[in-house]
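Co-fold these.
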Amino acid sequence: MRGLYKVGCIFVKDPTLTSILQVFTKPLSTTSSSVAAEVHKFCLETPIEEATTPPASWYTDERLHDLEMRTVFRRNWVAVGVTNQVARPGQFFTGLLGADPFVVVRDQSDQLRAFHNVCRHRANIVVRQEEGQTDQFTCCYHGWTYRLDGRLSKALRLRRIKNFSARENGLKPVAVRTWGPAVLVRLEGDGRTDFQEKTSPLLHHLDSQGFTQGMTHICRRYYDTRCNWKLLVENAQDHNSHVEYVHKDLAKIVDLPSTKVEATDLYSKMTGLGAKENDESTEGQRYGEGYTVANLFPNLAVNRYGPWLDTNLLLPLAADRTRIVMDYFLEEDFVKNTSEKELADFIETSLKDSDQVQKEDNDICENVQRGLLSSAYDVGRYLPMIEHGPHMFHVFLGTELRKGLELGQ
Ligand SMILES: [Fe+2]
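Predicted complex below.
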């Protein structure tokens, strides 16, 4: 990396410093270009055979990250949790989407609801726990209290206030729905009514193996990665072509030539055969006869293999930081029919193996993130026979970003 780099407001010329500063620097050509120009660098119409990938700025520039959060992550159904977190009336969890704190709760009449988690009085964040059980939400600042359906039920010292209606000062609602075991929210309605219809083939496929029903939640794991969320999506869509290089142990038990990928604008689905015949090892059992790896736009990944299901929420924290929240489920029948000791061993070994695979993926994606800062790289190419998943993902993402720019978001 040679040339002039901007570090905060200091210009650095010394090439010996660049390796130390690499993570914090970007070539000036990128930082001085407008966000709109960077968005339009990726051509939506070019066929995959001739197309180049989105430029590096889509993965490294905070302005692109901000645009994604203001557009893609507001106008689409975004995965924020799983249904077992809100299984019983009064159960809730909170989160942050872009700048918006939200709370998801199952109310007393068993209805799933979500709200902006901000008090209507002075903007204090009402619910400060990550998750829990309650029968009302009370703001810790001045005690304003809201029912689980969002209505304001208590506000003290309102005497002499004019033009105030408790009915109009409830927590502001956020659209919420479930998709299989995932909980999705949408901060802004854009009239898109085709989500159900467009995603139902994938949901149907997953449900036929046990997805919405028949699974028991086992545990949750977190990974904080130093890479852009899109690298993790693309890594899961590459037709398993990284497996023999990145996951040498996994490659021994998965039948790679059987891999198939199907991609639409809202999802991609990769399927393949699992354990090789007569493989009775725990690893073989973990993968069973076949698997599905699916990505629902924008940020939900689903892995269904053997008796296991894991859902991954990809939560972008910055252009180069993503939190992965993994929830592990097992088939209820498998749990019922396995002895306690055997089950405990199986879970422990499986989680260890899964952790290894995830760490290998995170490591390679973080390595790519560093490569994206190189002045020698701006765009890459697609392999037309196998990389239609990432290509469709980029085309849909590009369409959403352009829409956001047109709307002035
Ligand atoms: Fe991988």
